[in-house]
Protein backbone atom coordinates (compact mmCIF):
# COMPACT_ATOMS: atom_id res chain seq x y z
CA UNK A 1 0.00 0.00 0.00
CA UNK A 2 1.38 3.48 -0.84
CA UNK A 3 2.52 5.74 1.98
CA UNK A 4 0.54 8.96 2.32
CA UNK A 5 1.81 12.10 4.00
CA UNK A 6 -0.38 13.44 6.78
CA UNK A 7 -1.84 16.36 4.88
CA UNK A 8 -5.01 17.51 3.17
CA UNK A 9 -4.95 18.18 -0.57
CA UNK A 10 -7.25 21.09 -1.45
CA UNK A 11 -8.01 21.90 -5.08
CA UNK A 12 -8.94 25.50 -5.89
CA UNK A 13 -7.86 28.77 -4.29
CA UNK A 14 -11.32 30.30 -4.45
CA UNK A 15 -12.91 31.65 -1.27
CA UNK A 16 -13.81 28.11 -0.19
CA UNK A 17 -10.43 26.44 -0.79
CA UNK A 18 -8.57 29.34 0.80
CA UNK A 19 -10.75 29.58 3.93
CA UNK A 20 -10.54 25.83 4.39
CA UNK A 21 -6.76 25.79 3.93
CA UNK A 22 -6.25 28.64 6.40
CA UNK A 23 -8.53 27.11 9.05
CA UNK A 24 -6.70 23.77 8.75
CA UNK A 25 -3.22 25.29 8.69
CA UNK A 26 -3.94 27.43 11.73
CA UNK A 27 -4.94 24.25 13.61
CA UNK A 28 -1.54 22.76 12.72
CA UNK A 29 -2.63 20.53 9.83
CA UNK A 30 -0.51 20.42 6.71
CA UNK A 31 -2.21 21.43 3.46
CA UNK A 32 -1.25 21.28 -0.20
CA UNK A 33 -3.37 23.88 -2.04
CA UNK A 34 -3.50 23.50 -5.83
CA UNK A 35 -4.66 26.39 -8.04
CA UNK A 36 -4.72 26.48 -11.84
CA UNK A 37 -4.25 30.26 -12.05
CA UNK A 38 -0.83 31.79 -11.58
CA UNK A 39 0.53 35.08 -10.23
CA UNK A 40 0.12 36.64 -13.67
CA UNK A 41 -3.64 36.02 -13.97
CA UNK A 42 -5.00 35.28 -10.49
CA UNK A 43 -6.40 38.80 -10.10
CA UNK A 44 -7.98 38.84 -13.55
CA UNK A 45 -11.03 36.75 -12.70
CA UNK A 46 -14.48 38.01 -13.75
CA UNK A 47 -16.52 39.88 -11.12
CA UNK A 48 -18.70 37.57 -9.06
CA UNK A 49 -19.79 37.35 -5.45
CA UNK A 50 -19.34 40.30 -3.15
CA UNK A 51 -21.94 40.43 -0.39
CA UNK A 52 -20.67 38.87 2.83
CA UNK A 53 -23.30 38.10 5.44
CA UNK A 54 -22.76 38.53 9.21
CA UNK A 55 -22.37 34.78 9.89
CA UNK A 56 -19.62 34.66 7.26
CA UNK A 57 -17.88 37.71 8.73
CA UNK A 58 -17.65 35.85 12.06
CA UNK A 59 -15.87 33.02 10.23
CA UNK A 60 -13.48 35.38 8.45
CA UNK A 61 -12.65 36.85 11.83
CA UNK A 62 -11.79 33.40 13.20
CA UNK A 63 -8.95 33.05 10.65
CA UNK A 64 -7.80 36.69 10.87
CA UNK A 65 -9.19 37.61 7.44
CA UNK A 66 -11.97 40.01 8.45
CA UNK A 67 -9.62 42.85 9.47
CA UNK A 68 -8.01 42.77 6.03
CA UNK A 69 -11.33 42.91 4.21
CA UNK A 70 -13.18 45.63 6.10
CA UNK A 71 -10.95 48.50 4.86
CA UNK A 72 -11.45 47.26 1.28
CA UNK A 73 -15.23 46.97 1.52
CA UNK A 74 -18.39 48.85 2.40
CA UNK A 75 -20.16 48.27 5.71
CA UNK A 76 -23.83 48.04 4.74
CA UNK A 77 -26.32 47.66 7.61
CA UNK A 78 -29.43 48.30 5.50
CA UNK A 79 -30.81 46.74 2.33
CA UNK A 80 -33.85 47.67 0.29
CA UNK A 81 -36.63 46.07 -1.69
CA UNK A 82 -37.95 48.37 -4.42
CA UNK A 83 -40.97 48.23 -6.71
CA UNK A 84 -39.61 49.45 -10.03
CA UNK A 85 -43.05 49.36 -11.62
CA UNK A 86 -44.35 51.95 -9.14
CA UNK A 87 -40.95 53.60 -8.55
CA UNK A 88 -41.36 53.07 -4.79
CA UNK A 89 -39.34 51.72 -1.90
CA UNK A 90 -41.22 48.70 -0.53
CA UNK A 91 -39.17 47.88 2.56
CA UNK A 92 -35.84 48.68 4.24
CA UNK A 93 -34.28 45.95 6.40
CA UNK A 94 -31.77 47.05 9.01
CA UNK A 95 -29.27 44.52 10.40
CA UNK A 96 -29.28 46.59 13.61
CA UNK A 97 -32.07 44.18 14.61
CA UNK A 98 -29.28 41.58 14.98
CA UNK A 99 -27.17 43.68 17.34
CA UNK A 100 -27.61 41.14 20.17
CA UNK A 101 -27.02 38.18 17.85
CA UNK A 102 -23.68 39.08 16.28
CA UNK A 103 -20.70 41.38 16.54
CA UNK A 104 -21.33 42.17 12.86
CA UNK A 105 -24.85 43.63 12.48
CA UNK A 106 -24.25 44.42 8.83
CA UNK A 107 -23.12 42.86 5.57
CA UNK A 108 -19.73 43.71 4.14
CA UNK A 109 -19.80 44.55 0.45
CA UNK A 110 -16.38 43.20 -0.51
CA UNK A 111 -15.87 41.44 -3.81
CA UNK A 112 -14.67 37.87 -4.16
CA UNK A 113 -11.51 39.04 -5.91
CA UNK A 114 -10.44 41.11 -2.89
CA UNK A 115 -11.24 38.20 -0.57
CA UNK A 116 -9.12 35.74 -2.52
CA UNK A 117 -6.32 38.30 -2.94
CA UNK A 118 -6.08 38.84 0.84
CA UNK A 119 -6.57 35.18 1.72
CA UNK A 120 -3.97 34.11 -0.85
CA UNK A 121 -1.38 36.42 0.78
CA UNK A 122 -2.13 34.75 4.13
CA UNK A 123 -1.90 31.26 2.60
CA UNK A 124 1.41 32.10 0.93
CA UNK A 125 2.84 33.22 4.27
CA UNK A 126 1.66 30.20 6.26
CA UNK A 127 4.32 27.53 6.84
CA UNK A 128 1.71 24.73 6.92
CA UNK A 129 0.41 25.52 3.42
CA UNK A 130 2.26 24.26 0.37
CA UNK A 131 0.72 26.61 -2.21
CA UNK A 132 0.95 25.41 -5.81
CA UNK A 133 -0.14 28.15 -8.20
CA UNK A 134 -0.30 27.62 -11.95
CA UNK A 135 -0.85 23.92 -11.28
CA UNK A 136 -3.78 22.23 -12.93
CA UNK A 137 -5.46 19.35 -11.17
CA UNK A 138 -6.48 16.73 -13.75
CA UNK A 139 -7.51 13.50 -11.99
CA UNK A 140 -7.20 11.51 -8.78
CA UNK A 141 -7.50 8.10 -7.21
CA UNK A 142 -8.00 6.95 -3.64
CA UNK A 143 -7.66 3.86 -1.49
CA UNK A 144 -8.23 3.05 2.16
CA UNK A 145 -5.13 5.00 3.28
CA UNK A 146 -5.22 8.19 1.24
CA UNK A 147 -5.58 10.05 -2.05
CA UNK A 148 -3.32 10.79 -5.00
CA UNK A 149 -4.10 13.92 -7.00
CA UNK A 150 -2.57 14.19 -10.46
CA UNK A 151 -1.68 17.67 -11.63
CA UNK A 152 0.28 19.48 -14.33
CA UNK A 153 2.82 21.76 -12.67
CA UNK A 154 4.08 25.16 -13.96
CA UNK A 155 6.83 23.39 -15.90
CA UNK A 156 4.20 21.36 -17.80
CA UNK A 157 5.18 18.15 -16.04
CA UNK A 158 2.82 15.62 -14.51
CA UNK A 159 3.01 15.44 -10.76
CA UNK A 160 1.37 13.11 -8.21
CA UNK A 161 0.40 14.87 -4.98
CA UNK A 162 -0.54 12.60 -2.11
CA UNK A 163 -2.43 13.23 1.10
CA UNK A 164 -4.98 11.83 3.54
CA UNK A 165 -8.05 13.57 2.06
CA UNK A 166 -8.84 15.47 -1.13
CA UNK A 167 -11.19 18.45 -0.99
CA UNK A 168 -12.65 19.86 -4.19
CA UNK A 169 -12.96 23.64 -3.94
CA UNK A 170 -12.69 23.71 -7.75
CA UNK A 171 -15.99 25.47 -8.37
CA UNK A 172 -18.98 24.36 -10.41
CA UNK A 173 -17.04 22.35 -13.00
CA UNK A 174 -15.46 20.11 -10.36
CA UNK A 175 -13.42 17.28 -11.86
CA UNK A 176 -13.67 15.44 -8.54
CA UNK A 177 -17.49 15.48 -8.69
CA UNK A 178 -17.48 14.31 -12.31
CA UNK A 179 -14.89 11.59 -11.70
CA UNK A 180 -17.00 10.24 -8.86
CA UNK A 181 -20.02 10.33 -11.16
CA UNK A 182 -22.04 12.27 -8.63
CA UNK A 183 -25.26 13.68 -10.11
CA UNK A 184 -25.58 17.47 -9.96
CA UNK A 185 -29.32 17.60 -9.47
CA UNK A 186 -31.48 20.62 -10.25
CA UNK A 187 -32.12 22.92 -13.18
CA UNK A 188 -30.74 25.84 -15.19
CA UNK A 189 -32.73 29.02 -15.82
CA UNK A 190 -33.20 29.69 -19.52
CA UNK A 191 -32.62 33.45 -19.23
CA UNK A 192 -29.06 34.68 -18.78
CA UNK A 193 -28.33 37.51 -16.35
CA UNK A 194 -26.68 40.65 -17.65
CA UNK A 195 -24.30 42.27 -15.19
CA UNK A 196 -23.34 45.89 -15.89
CA UNK A 197 -20.75 47.68 -13.74
CA UNK A 198 -21.27 51.45 -13.59
CA UNK A 199 -19.36 54.30 -11.96
CA UNK A 200 -22.36 56.34 -10.80
CA UNK A 201 -23.64 57.10 -7.30
CA UNK A 202 -27.17 55.69 -7.15
CA UNK A 203 -27.54 56.78 -3.50
CA UNK A 204 -28.60 60.24 -4.64
CA UNK A 205 -31.80 58.59 -5.89
CA UNK A 206 -32.52 57.01 -2.48
CA UNK A 207 -30.96 53.59 -3.06
CA UNK A 208 -29.08 51.73 -0.30
CA UNK A 209 -25.75 49.93 -0.87
CA UNK A 210 -27.78 46.77 -1.64
CA UNK A 211 -31.11 46.80 -3.46
CA UNK A 212 -33.45 44.10 -4.77
CA UNK A 213 -35.81 45.55 -7.34
CA UNK A 214 -39.00 43.81 -8.39
CA UNK A 215 -40.60 44.40 -11.75
CA UNK A 216 -42.95 42.26 -13.84
CA UNK A 217 -40.98 43.04 -17.01
CA UNK A 218 -37.38 43.56 -15.90
CA UNK A 219 -36.41 42.85 -12.29
CA UNK A 220 -32.94 43.88 -11.17
CA UNK A 221 -30.40 44.00 -8.37
CA UNK A 222 -28.26 47.02 -7.59
CA UNK A 223 -25.12 46.74 -5.44
CA UNK A 224 -22.40 49.19 -4.45
CA UNK A 225 -18.66 48.29 -4.39
CA UNK A 226 -15.77 50.30 -3.04
CA UNK A 227 -13.28 51.69 -5.59
CA UNK A 228 -11.45 53.68 -6.57
CA UNK A 229 -13.48 54.35 -8.57
CA UNK A 230 -16.59 53.23 -6.68
CA UNK A 231 -18.74 50.97 -8.87
CA UNK A 232 -22.34 49.81 -8.84
CA UNK A 233 -23.36 46.47 -10.24
CA UNK A 234 -26.76 46.32 -11.94
CA UNK A 235 -28.29 42.95 -12.91
CA UNK A 236 -30.98 42.50 -15.54
CA UNK A 237 -32.66 39.39 -16.98
CA UNK A 238 -32.27 38.90 -20.74
CA UNK A 239 -34.22 37.23 -23.52
CA UNK A 240 -32.90 33.62 -23.75
CA UNK A 241 -32.80 33.86 -27.55
CA UNK A 242 -31.01 37.21 -27.75
CA UNK A 243 -27.59 37.39 -29.33
CA UNK A 244 -24.76 37.93 -26.82
CA UNK A 245 -23.06 40.67 -28.86
CA UNK A 246 -26.34 42.53 -29.29
CA UNK A 247 -27.00 42.40 -25.54
CA UNK A 248 -23.59 43.74 -24.59
CA UNK A 249 -23.12 46.48 -27.21
CA UNK A 250 -22.43 49.87 -25.53
CA UNK A 251 -25.69 51.38 -26.94
CA UNK A 252 -27.69 48.40 -25.66
CA UNK A 253 -26.15 48.73 -22.18
CA UNK A 254 -26.81 52.49 -22.10
CA UNK A 255 -30.39 51.97 -23.19
CA UNK A 256 -30.99 49.38 -20.40
CA UNK A 257 -29.52 51.72 -17.81
CA UNK A 258 -31.54 54.70 -19.07
CA UNK A 259 -34.66 52.51 -18.93
CA UNK A 260 -33.80 51.77 -15.31
CA UNK A 261 -32.87 55.33 -14.33
CA UNK A 262 -33.39 58.00 -16.99
CA UNK A 263 -30.64 60.55 -16.34
CA UNK A 264 -30.44 61.86 -19.90
CA UNK A 265 -26.62 61.52 -19.75
CA UNK A 266 -24.58 58.46 -20.73
CA UNK A 267 -23.53 56.29 -17.78
CA UNK A 268 -19.83 55.60 -17.20
CA UNK A 269 -19.87 51.83 -17.84
CA UNK A 270 -16.75 50.13 -16.52
CA UNK A 271 -17.56 46.52 -17.36
CA UNK A 272 -20.21 43.98 -18.22
CA UNK A 273 -20.71 40.25 -18.50
CA UNK A 274 -23.49 37.74 -19.13
CA UNK A 275 -23.90 34.60 -17.07
CA UNK A 276 -26.08 31.52 -16.91
CA UNK A 277 -27.71 30.71 -13.57
CA UNK A 278 -27.98 27.14 -12.28
CA UNK A 279 -29.79 25.78 -9.23
CA UNK A 280 -28.08 22.47 -8.51
CA UNK A 281 -26.94 20.36 -5.57
CA UNK A 282 -24.62 17.34 -5.73
CA UNK A 283 -26.28 14.09 -4.74
CA UNK A 284 -23.34 13.30 -2.46
CA UNK A 285 -20.78 15.60 -0.84
CA UNK A 286 -18.36 12.82 0.07
CA UNK A 287 -17.16 9.55 -1.38
CA UNK A 288 -14.48 7.92 0.76
CA UNK A 289 -11.64 10.40 1.13
CA UNK A 290 -12.83 12.80 -1.56
CA UNK A 291 -15.06 15.64 -0.40
CA UNK A 292 -16.91 18.44 -2.23
CA UNK A 293 -17.32 21.96 -0.83
CA UNK A 294 -18.64 25.27 -2.17
CA UNK A 295 -19.66 25.56 -5.82
CA UNK A 296 -18.37 22.09 -6.59
CA UNK A 297 -21.18 20.81 -4.30
CA UNK A 298 -23.93 23.36 -5.00
CA UNK A 299 -24.65 26.32 -7.25
CA UNK A 300 -27.48 28.81 -7.09
CA UNK A 301 -28.77 32.14 -8.29
CA UNK A 302 -26.90 35.10 -6.82
CA UNK A 303 -30.17 36.79 -5.74
CA UNK A 304 -29.77 36.84 -1.96
CA UNK A 305 -25.97 36.45 -2.04
CA UNK A 306 -25.85 32.92 -0.71
CA UNK A 307 -23.47 30.99 -2.99
CA UNK A 308 -20.09 32.13 -1.75
CA UNK A 309 -21.37 32.58 1.79
CA UNK A 310 -22.75 29.07 2.08
CA UNK A 311 -19.59 27.71 0.43
CA UNK A 312 -17.46 29.41 3.08
CA UNK A 313 -19.74 27.87 5.72
CA UNK A 314 -19.05 24.43 4.16
CA UNK A 315 -15.33 25.17 4.47
CA UNK A 316 -15.47 25.92 8.20
CA UNK A 317 -17.79 23.01 8.96
CA UNK A 318 -15.45 20.66 7.10
CA UNK A 319 -12.31 22.17 8.64
CA UNK A 320 -13.60 21.44 12.16
CA UNK A 321 -14.28 17.83 11.23
CA UNK A 322 -10.92 17.25 9.54
CA UNK A 323 -9.20 18.82 12.57
CA UNK A 324 -11.14 16.51 14.94
CA UNK A 325 -10.15 13.48 12.84
CA UNK A 326 -6.48 14.47 12.81
CA UNK A 327 -6.50 14.89 16.61
CA UNK A 328 -8.10 11.48 17.09
CA UNK A 329 -11.24 13.10 18.51
CA UNK A 330 -13.49 11.70 15.76
CA UNK A 331 -13.39 8.97 13.14
CA UNK A 332 -14.07 9.73 9.55
CA UNK A 333 -17.79 8.89 9.83
CA UNK A 334 -18.00 12.50 10.99
CA UNK A 335 -17.60 13.44 7.32
CA UNK A 336 -20.99 11.88 6.65
CA UNK A 337 -22.38 14.36 9.16
CA UNK A 338 -20.72 17.14 7.13
CA UNK A 339 -22.69 15.86 4.13
CA UNK A 340 -25.96 15.62 6.07
CA UNK A 341 -25.58 19.11 7.51
CA UNK A 342 -24.36 21.01 4.50
CA UNK A 343 -26.54 19.20 1.95
CA UNK A 344 -29.55 20.03 4.08
CA UNK A 345 -28.51 23.70 4.12
CA UNK A 346 -27.92 23.68 0.35
CA UNK A 347 -31.37 22.26 -0.37
CA UNK A 348 -33.60 23.66 2.38
CA UNK A 349 -31.97 27.09 2.66
CA UNK A 350 -29.77 28.16 -0.22
CA UNK A 351 -31.79 26.60 -3.05
CA UNK A 352 -35.20 27.25 -1.53
CA UNK A 353 -34.43 30.85 -0.61
CA UNK A 354 -32.74 31.86 -3.88
CA UNK A 355 -35.54 30.31 -5.97
CA UNK A 356 -38.08 32.23 -3.84
CA UNK A 357 -36.04 35.43 -4.18
CA UNK A 358 -36.07 35.27 -7.95
CA UNK A 359 -39.80 34.50 -8.02
CA UNK A 360 -40.45 37.46 -5.75
CA UNK A 361 -38.58 39.89 -7.98
CA UNK A 362 -39.96 38.54 -11.27
CA UNK A 363 -43.59 37.97 -10.18
CA UNK A 364 -46.04 39.12 -12.89
CA UNK A 365 -49.44 38.67 -11.26
CA UNK A 366 -50.41 42.11 -9.83
CA UNK A 367 -52.39 40.62 -6.93
CA UNK A 368 -49.53 38.31 -5.91
CA UNK A 369 -47.04 41.19 -6.26
CA UNK A 370 -49.17 43.35 -4.00
CA UNK A 371 -49.49 40.57 -1.41
CA UNK A 372 -45.72 39.92 -1.47
CA UNK A 373 -44.90 43.59 -1.11
CA UNK A 374 -47.38 44.08 1.74
CA UNK A 375 -45.82 41.15 3.55
CA UNK A 376 -42.28 42.50 3.09
CA UNK A 377 -43.38 45.90 4.37
CA UNK A 378 -45.10 44.40 7.42
CA UNK A 379 -42.05 42.26 8.19
CA UNK A 380 -39.61 45.16 7.95
CA UNK A 381 -41.76 47.36 10.19
CA UNK A 382 -42.18 44.82 13.01
CA UNK A 383 -38.91 44.45 14.99
CA UNK A 384 -39.55 40.81 15.95
CA UNK A 385 -40.50 39.74 12.42
CA UNK A 386 -37.62 41.77 10.97
CA UNK A 387 -35.12 40.06 13.30
CA UNK A 388 -36.42 36.60 12.32
CA UNK A 389 -36.27 37.54 8.64
CA UNK A 390 -32.68 38.79 9.00
CA UNK A 391 -31.59 35.72 10.98
CA UNK A 392 -32.63 33.75 7.90
CA UNK A 393 -31.14 36.05 5.23
CA UNK A 394 -27.91 36.50 7.25
CA UNK A 395 -27.65 32.66 7.31
CA UNK A 396 -27.69 32.21 11.10
CA UNK A 397 -30.83 30.11 10.89
CA UNK A 398 -29.18 27.69 8.43
CA UNK A 399 -26.23 27.25 10.80
CA UNK A 400 -28.49 26.60 13.80
CA UNK A 401 -30.47 24.04 11.85
CA UNK A 402 -27.27 22.33 10.66
CA UNK A 403 -25.99 22.18 14.26
CA UNK A 404 -29.09 20.26 15.26
CA UNK A 405 -28.44 17.53 12.64
CA UNK A 406 -26.81 14.46 14.19
C1 LIG B 1 -22.27 37.15 -11.14
C2 LIG B 1 -22.21 36.38 -9.87
C3 LIG B 1 -22.47 37.05 -8.68
C4 LIG B 1 -22.43 36.37 -7.50
N1 LIG B 1 -22.70 37.05 -6.36
C5 LIG B 1 -22.65 36.40 -5.17
C6 LIG B 1 -22.83 37.11 -3.94
O1 LIG B 1 -23.05 38.34 -3.91
N2 LIG B 1 -22.72 36.41 -2.79
C7 LIG B 1 -22.47 35.06 -2.78
O2 LIG B 1 -22.42 34.47 -1.68
N3 LIG B 1 -22.24 34.37 -3.94
C8 LIG B 1 -22.32 35.00 -5.12
N4 LIG B 1 -22.03 34.31 -6.29
C9 LIG B 1 -21.55 32.92 -6.24
C10 LIG B 1 -20.04 32.84 -5.89
O3 LIG B 1 -19.23 33.55 -6.81
C11 LIG B 1 -19.58 31.42 -5.79
O4 LIG B 1 -20.51 30.70 -5.00
C12 LIG B 1 -18.19 31.32 -5.13
O5 LIG B 1 -17.22 32.02 -5.88
C13 LIG B 1 -17.79 29.86 -5.00
O6 LIG B 1 -16.54 29.75 -4.41
P1 LIG B 1 -15.66 28.45 -4.60
O7 LIG B 1 -14.39 28.71 -3.86
O8 LIG B 1 -16.46 27.24 -4.29
O9 LIG B 1 -15.38 28.34 -6.15
P2 LIG B 1 -14.73 29.43 -7.17
O10 LIG B 1 -14.89 30.80 -6.63
O11 LIG B 1 -15.31 29.08 -8.47
O12 LIG B 1 -13.19 29.07 -7.12
C14 LIG B 1 -12.69 27.88 -7.69
C15 LIG B 1 -11.18 27.97 -7.82
O13 LIG B 1 -10.71 26.71 -8.26
C16 LIG B 1 -9.77 26.90 -9.32
N5 LIG B 1 -9.81 25.69 -10.17
C17 LIG B 1 -10.86 25.25 -10.90
N6 LIG B 1 -10.54 24.12 -11.55
C18 LIG B 1 -9.25 23.82 -11.21
C19 LIG B 1 -8.35 22.76 -11.56
N7 LIG B 1 -8.70 21.78 -12.39
N8 LIG B 1 -7.11 22.79 -11.02
C20 LIG B 1 -6.74 23.77 -10.17
N9 LIG B 1 -7.54 24.80 -9.81
C21 LIG B 1 -8.80 24.82 -10.32
C22 LIG B 1 -10.29 28.15 -10.03
O14 LIG B 1 -9.28 28.77 -10.80
C23 LIG B 1 -10.75 29.00 -8.85
O15 LIG B 1 -9.69 29.78 -8.32
C24 LIG B 1 -22.09 34.96 -7.49
C25 LIG B 1 -21.81 34.30 -8.69
C26 LIG B 1 -21.90 35.00 -9.86
C27 LIG B 1 -21.62 34.26 -11.14
Features:
binds flavin-adenine dinucleotide; 406 residues; 7-stranded mixed beta sheet
Structure description:
The chain is globular, with a radius of gyration of 22 Å. It is α+β, with helices and mostly antiparallel strands and 406 residues long. It has a domain at 7-76 and 105-187 and 279-360: FAD/NAD(P)-binding domain (3-Layer(bba) Sandwich), CATH 3.50.50.60. The protein has helices spanning 15-26, 54-62, 66-69, 112-125, 175-179, 244-248, 250-260, 307-326, 334-362, 366-381, 383-393, 396-403, and strands at residues 7-11, 30-34, 51-52, 74-76, 78-83, 88-94, 107-109, 129-132, 136-142, 147-152, 158-163, 165-168, 184-188, 193-198, 210-214, 220-225, 231-237, 269-275, 278-282, 286-287, 290-292, 298-299. It contains twelve helices and 22 strands. Bound molecules: flavin-adenine dinucleotide.
Total helices: the number is: 12
Q: What is the CATH H-level superfamily of the domain at 7-76 and 105-187 and 279-360?
A: FAD/NAD(P)-binding domain
Largest sheet composition:
7 strands, mixed
Terminal residue distance: 34 Å
Number of strands: 22
Return the average pLDDT rounded to an integer: 96
Question: What is the fold named in CATH at topology level of the domain at 7-76 and 105-187 and 279-360?
Answer: FAD/NAD(P)-binding domain
Strand content: 25-35%
Strand order of the largest sheet: 6-5-15-16-17-14-18
Amino acid sequence: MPVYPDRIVVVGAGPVGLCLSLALAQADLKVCLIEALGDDNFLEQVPRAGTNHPATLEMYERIGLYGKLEPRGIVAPVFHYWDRHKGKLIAAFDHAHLKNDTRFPYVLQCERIKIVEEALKMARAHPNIDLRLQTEFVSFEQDAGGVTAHAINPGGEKEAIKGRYLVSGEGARSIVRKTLDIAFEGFTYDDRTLNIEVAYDFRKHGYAHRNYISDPREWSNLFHWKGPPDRWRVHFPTDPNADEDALTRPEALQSRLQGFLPTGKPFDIVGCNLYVVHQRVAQKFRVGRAILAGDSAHVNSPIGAMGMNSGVHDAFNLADKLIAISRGEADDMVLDRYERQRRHVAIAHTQAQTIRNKRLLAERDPAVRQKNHDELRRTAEDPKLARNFLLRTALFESLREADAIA
